[in-house]
Amino acid sequence: MDKNPYREMAVAIVVISAGACLIDWRLALASQDRLIASGLLIAFALGLAFLIIWIGREKKELMNSRQRYQVLLRTASDGIHILDANGNLREASDAFRQMLGYAEAPLALCNIADWDSGFAPSELMGKLHELIRSPIPIRFETRHRRRDGSRIDVEINACGIELDGQQFLYASSRDITDRKRLEEQLRESEEKLRAIYEVLPVGITVTDPDGNIIDCNQTSEALLGISQKEHLARNYVGKEWTIRGADGSQMPPEEYASVRALRTGEAVRDVEMEVLTRTGSQWLRVSAMPLHHPRYGVVIAYVDINEHKHIEAELRRSNAELEQFAYAASHDLRQPLRMIASYLQLLEQELGDTLNDEHRQYLHFATDGAKRMDQMLVALLDYSRIGRKGAAMAVMDSREALDEALLFLRPAIAEAGAQIQIDGTWPHLVTSRDELTRLFQNLIGNAVKYRAEGQVPKIAVTAEPVGNDWRVTVRDNGIGIAPGQIGRLFQVFQRLQARTKYEGVGVGLALCRKIVEHHGGRIWAESAGDGRGCVFTFTLPVSEEPHS
């Protein structure tokens, strides 16, 4: 056995060193636990601090949210209200209170049944549950009962919400009473217009901006001889239409009233056209008005003028016969009348000195009567020729016609010493030169002839535009006319003055009336009475086309 002392010493040293290390490790471990505990404590404290801060912030945000919610309830324009599943009122905005008439009084409403009058009591809860179960907003209309018992129409937006496991209905009401009243008025107005539209004895057609027909009334079916279905399938310039103009020739589509109105954007009125239908033809007077709307083009109105055209044709035929008769009578009767006058003169010459004064006076009366009859026949012949004979209408300077009339009247004007004053605007007109000259000649000639004895005739001729017409006035200081006699002035063979004092057969003013009417105008006279002069006025349309 090894008795080495160092070996034992070494062992002892090792043992001692291991124990010391164990003690140090335990001390270190205890110190580490204290550090961990301190760290956990600090972390807990910090977390608690953050939690307190977060709770404070959430509480503040909740308070702010509550304030915003209350502001919303006070300021919302719609009547906001919240109901539970039994229809009990949980909250209501100021607007809701005001809508129901409780702005100045406590809201004595507990359940939806207290104010809703749009649903029967048996239906109300079912409607409420339907709304609460809806995950999306539902809009509908109902009626609310106000505090004073009156009822208002409302529009409601409502949807269900869930809070803390309970179902609620969030709803907003909007008073639409005025809107409903306006809608009802509009509906009544539309019904009236539709009734008028359908029963009006005028065909009505409405087109889109491209001329496609999108609406028509029942009268249009009868006038055009096609069904409403066929009508709505057409375009107003389509090949299905066969239309003639007033002159009987085929009317090109660009001349249709509707097409012109669409093209120009201006109203086109009173276009006469003959529409050929399956059963014959239909004469219409058509007007078209542009609507200036993205969806609509023109509205076309047309009336039946078949009877008018028939009467017009008969009138033309009758007038032609009358004019032919007047011409034949005035022309053919002059020959035997001249023969009577000639034989009376021969008889006076043959009897010579055998005639006494009374017999000579008889022969003078007969001869004078024959001459006056001849003058009347000549005047009647002239009257019958107005509008039938002479040059066609053409554009001319109206002042030239006046100057020509004054040239023919120069001897009479000089003899009477008449003073003629001319003023105003003298446009170019579509007229018959001979007839317009004759019109001026007769009116100014009468003013010169029917003058007061010993008085210088003063005649003023003025002209001015009046709307679409041209108005001419001939004013004189002559003998005047009794107001009760003015109605006789423009009739054939009507004389207001004695033949012995003023020559004439009483046709001049009748000729003036016929000339003016032939040009589409009118004529009238005014006078303050005998000795106070006369004013003759006529109007003629200023147009680019001859008057038919």
User: What is the terminal separation in angstroms?
Assistant: 166 Å
Q: Report low-confidence residues grouped into runs of 5 or more.
A: 1-19, 544-548
CATH superfamily of the largest domain: Histidine kinase-like ATPase, C-terminal domain
The assembly state of the depicted protein chains is single chain
- Residue share in β-strands: 15-25%
Strand element count = 18
Structural class: alpha+beta
For the biggest β-sheet, the strand order reads 7-6-11-10-9-8
Please summarize the sheet with the most strands: 6 strands, antiparallel
User: Over the alpha carbons, how many angstroms does the gyration radius reach?
Assistant: 54 Å
Helical amount = 40-55%
What is the CATH class designation of the largest domain?
Alpha Beta
Structural shape: elongated
By CATH, the topology of the largest domain is: Heat Shock Protein 90
Count the helices. How many? 14
Task: Name the average pLDDT.
Answer: 78
**Domains, number:** 5
CATH architecture of the largest domain: 2-Layer Sandwich
